[in-house]
């Protein structure tokens, strides 16, 4: 139906073809909607899977992955990372104070002081960024728990944001001849390493109370 309202897909751009690694797009209408290897961005066009079946499988796997046991482990790891980031941020402050004092008292020449100070300043800025990211990561397990409870009430765009925060890519393998169902190994989820999640990626997520904490970015 050429005038049918376009429906936002859950995983377009997140899914990737296992053959050529190109992003996959959504195409088709109604029950014939599929994820297809996107030839317009250089893909091979050789992998196509039923969109509804892929979505159902990925949702089940994602929400199951963030089980209570996993979330407890994630929360513990995030808090340990936060403590390390706090120590690193504090540790770099004292050399800066010592160098500044030595320079002001004439014990450290400017030719030595400024390179040292600039290096320490860059270290502190880097530590400050890691500290901000660590503080954000501490909140993610609670938001993941909320996702399991609130998933059905979210829009597709909100679900896409939540998935993008946690998933690098969903790798889609082509089906066997004459087969449509999803079997083990057909779809592989590559999760985001919590240690590399940036504050920009985690700028929005549902709060534990179930309300958005900001404007949902465009998927």
What does this 3D model show about the protein?
- The protein has 219 residues and is mainly α.
- Helix content is 47%, strand content 11%.
- The strands form two sheets. A three-stranded mixed β-sheet has the order 1-5-6. The protein has a three-stranded antiparallel β-sheet with strand order 2-3-4.
- Strand 2 and strand 3 form a beta hairpin.
- Helix 2 packs antiparallel against helix 3.
- The longest helix has 41 residues.
- The radius of gyration is 23 Å and the shape is elongated.
- The two termini are 25 Å apart.
- The N terminus and C terminus are likely disordered.
List keywords for this structure.
3-stranded mixed β-sheet, 6 strands, 219 residues, single chain, mainly alpha, 3-stranded antiparallel β-sheet
* First-last Cα distance: 25 Å
Number of strands: 6
Mean pLDDT: 79
Overall SS class: mainly alpha
Shape: elongated
Name the poorly predicted regions.
Answer: 1-5, 194-219
Helical residue percent band? 40-55%
* Rg value: 23 Å
User: How would you spell out the order of helices and strands?
Assistant: EEEEHHHHEE
Assembly state (oligomeric): single chain
For the sheet with most strands, the description reads: 3 strands, mixed
Strand order of the largest sheet: 1-5-6
Report the β-strand fraction as a percent range: 5-15%
Tally the helices: what do you get? 4
């Amino acid at each position: 139906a050429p005038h049918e309202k376009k429906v936002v897909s859950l995983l377009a751009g997140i899914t990737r073809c296992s053959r050529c690694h190109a992003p996959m797009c959504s195409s088709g209408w109604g029950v014939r909607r599929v994820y297809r290897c996107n030839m317009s961005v250089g893909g091979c066009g050789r992998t196509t899977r039923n969109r509804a079946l892929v979505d159902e499988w990925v949702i089940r796997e994602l929400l199951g992955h963030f089980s209570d046991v996993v979330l407890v482990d994630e929360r513990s790891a995030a808090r340990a990372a936060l403590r390390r980031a706090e120590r690193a941020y504090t540790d770099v402050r004292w050399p800066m104070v010592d160098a500044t004092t030595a320079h002001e008292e004439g014990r450290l020449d400017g030719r030595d002081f400024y390179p040292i100070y600039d290096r320490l300043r860059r270290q502190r800025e880097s530590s400050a960024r890691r500290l901000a990211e660590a503080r954000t990561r501490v909140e993610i397990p609670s938001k993941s728990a909320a996702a399991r409870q609130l998933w059905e009430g979210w829009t597709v765009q909100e679900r896409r944001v939540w998935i993008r925060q946690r998933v690098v890519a969903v790798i889609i393998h082509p089906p066997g001849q004459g087969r449509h169902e999803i079997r083990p190994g057909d779809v592989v989820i590559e999760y985001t390493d919590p240690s590399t999640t940036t504050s920009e990626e985690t700028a929005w997520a549902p709060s534990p109370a179930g309300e958005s904490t900001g404007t949902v970015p465009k998927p």
